[in-house]
Request: fold
Amino acid sequence: MELQTTIYIFVGLSFALYLGIAFWARAGSTSEFYVAGGGVHPITNGMATAADWMSAASFISMAGLISNMGYGGAVFLMGWTGGYVLLAMLLAPYLRKFGKFTVPEFIGDRFYSKAARNVAVLCLLVASLTYIIGQMTGVGVTFARFLGVSSEQGIYIGMAIVFAYAVFGGMKGITYTQVAQYCVLIAAYLVPAFFISLNLTGNFLPQLGLGSDMAGTDVSLLSKLDQVVTDLGFGQYTTSSAGSMLNMFFYTVSLMIGTAGLPHVIVRFFTVPKVADARSSAGWALVFIALLYTTAPAVGAMAKLNLHGTVNTAVGLTQTAEGIQVNADAVKANADLYATEASLVYEQRPDWMKRWEKTGLLKWEDKNADGRIQYYNDKTKNEVAKGKAEAAGWKGNELTVNADIIVLANPEIALLPNWVIALVAAGGLAAALSTAAGLLLAISSAISHDLIKGAIKPDISEKGELMAGKIAMAVAIFVAGYLGLNPPGFAAGTVALAFGIAASTIFPALMMGIFSRTINNNGAIAGMLAGLFVTLFYVFAHKGLFFIKGTEYVDMVGGVNGFFTITPEAFGTVGAIVNFAVAYLVSKMGAPVPKHIQELVESVRVPKGAGIATGGH
Reply:
């Protein structure tokens, strides 16, 4: 069966499954719409949380980032996974004990202030909307490649699918759909990784394959990769880091506390019957997430080696009917990567390169007019590599590879069977759609439950609130679709920014709300606004006001990364420190926290005796 037909079948069947589940699990009450009726089993919830959590960024981009950055890409692994542990230990059980539907509702009640609730809604909407743009862009990229449509048409199809199961099913429909999406995306991630690891190292477990010798040789896979990339002028794969050590630390912390403050993940812990279930579902989620996260470094490294091996025969990989195999003699021989015959003749490029060229995410430009593909770092400071490139008559790097295609193209690069390529297509869409649905629910509940019921019309009926939630979600889908169709040129940066906003606003407010009896209403509001302002001020200095090119003002912050070499993506940590400090100082100067609120904080920290999550006051 030809590849395109196989893809249509796999993607079509997965969509039919999601829509069938959404129809079966329709939400009939606000409790089912917001928290799935509070009766989800911890293992089911763990799997749904893992799908909610592993977005297009985790599935599509993370291995690409690690592939490009090498060891430095570990900040994403440590930050995102560590944040999950923080969430499970420090937030989930206590918020579940509090027993409300949403994060702003907790903040509003704990800080006895409608203004605090509204500020939390503002921060939640800013973080969720910036995050969702990346998901819609991911949907567009995946559809564009695998369904042969334009990325605009891809986004329209994605909007329609999410609309169908999120609006009708609410949290109940989304929960069971996400379980199915997790099964699809994890199979799509692991199956190609097993094949590729087996081909390259003879070890089918990619986690072990990454540290193994290449098949039939005594040369380790990582040392071979290091030798290839350094010879071609790239940084050494195993020691590259994300800027200074301080920046790497701040980046990791920002991702960690940003993760723990993401509202669409927190709300998942309100869907289980008991506090103990909140803890155990967080543990299960970590197990399900670890399956993908421990595989990602191997996928990134093996894909990079396969890509170099495809365009440069001196690497020592050979293409066979079973996929890319190790040519043991060539690997041991360490042939000259700059030899004329080593570079792949463009006309003999494999089919997968032709398919990705159509999407514009893979580009070739023949700079020295020899009809061959030269792929190296032409901006290198490595004088030896520079000299070799000049002696070989190379006039500049000719191949541009978008990092986002590493996972999606991985099975094609490795020449795996068509059904594996089709499975990855279904998995990429499952990852983007599952997170988009979770974010839309967080946005919808913030508008219908926290703004309309909480601030504008407190006496709204349950039926009216449910309708408001569905309308809010429909509007949010169209806004997200519009931003996905007209990205303000910052789709990749927005995901890091979403974490920075959550880190500097929501996380500190939740931590102080649970663990401090002395932070008052004015302190919490001032802290959240200060954290938000400081983070946006530094980010906009580098990226332009509201990301409009030409409005940057980096001189005001001491030049690029002027604040102790910290990059804008890592600045959420500084925002969080400012939030904590401002909240503490303002609370010190203001009136003490009322006695009944202090007692509430004490009772939340005793994990026994929580009932079903409710939306009442």
